[in-house]
Amino acid sequence: MPAQSVDIIIRSYYKDFRWLSYCLRSIEKFCHGFREVIVVIPQSSDERFQCLGLRRGATWVICEDNHDDYLGQQVTKLMADTYSRADFICHVDSDCVFRRETGALDLLVNGKPTFVITPYRILPNAASWQRLSEGFLGREVEFDFMRRQPLVFPRWLYGELRDFGRTVHGMALKDYVMSRPPAGFSEYNALGAYAYYHRADAFEWVVRPVSEPDEQFCRWFWSWGGVTTNVRAEIASILD
Asked: What residues make up the domain containing 159?
């Protein structure tokens, strides 16, 4: 099998830069075999980003600002293939901290990305994500696809998803996402559900029958909860 390249992409903004610093430190400590680490931030965050000195070991890219950056950051991820030329793109959110040695090929099985999913029937609090996925795909969706970070997709999937969005909804995927109400779209669920129902043979699927996410590679924090004393202590125990 020919060598396959994998890039890490992180979409961040100024309010998450403290989390981002921990995330980048964990990548530097634990990750190997990735071609490049790419950090994408909106124009309005650029000045603060440069002041923090976070550019070491990563390529930083500026994207356009949007009226709602919660939706805007999802658009960035759905355009990840325009920021990276790698065969596979590995998404990591700013509030994730790698906790163990992780090689790029650890995330692939037989040359395919491993995707952890959980049935919605055991996730009663995730019904809103299910409705969003079903509204976008136009069909029943049985699984939640946000059960493990990082998430890895082949680069060709993004273009396919954009074509699908235009065909089904009559507009560019970016326009569809930005037309949604606040918290009205889920980019990882859209990518995952499309992959599961249209390109299942390109992934290795792992059904996780419990409600807790799989954190074997990354400790997945909640950025809106802030970097509390307990969070700092836990991160220090991982990184120090």
From this structure: 6-239
